[in-house]
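hey so i finally got around to running the thing on that chain from the lab meeting. sorry it took forever, my laptop kept dying and i had to restart like 3 times. anyway pasting the input first so we r on the same page abt which one it is
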Amino acid sequence: MGMIVGLIQEKGTAMRMNDQEYFRSCIAKERQLAQLLGHQHIEECYESAGSLWDKAQVLPQWTRDWQACGPLLARYRVALSFAPAGEADGSVGNSGNSGNSGTPGCAGGTVTAGGTTVTLTDHPSPERALMYAIVKEVVHRLEHHHVARPEAAAPLHPHP
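ok and heres what got predicted. didnt touch it at all, straight out
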């Protein structure tokens, strides 16, 4: 089973999170977001491991699917920035390159979504790190009421 570097590093050795633990952490973050978006009867069926359901409706896999995550980015207007390994501030944009096939920050570095910073090496790919950061930021905003919850939003037109 592949290993993914965990969040905690101590005395030069990294704590590791295996693929199953990482997968479960993504599902937990998706469950948290679903609850904040108003889903009340969330279940994960044994037959469809990794998919959350609200009654008969399958919920989006926000941390694992761009078609689900992309709308969060636009809806909550999450600003993104990247920083190569060793940079404290993500405002350098895409200028940092770690030398991996032209992809900024592939071997290290961070991605910042709004006020949430995620280390790229904690995830299987830079894309997965980016999706996770976006979901984590939206969860933070909903928990701290930085944005109106969808059900509390006023309609655009007052007439039905």
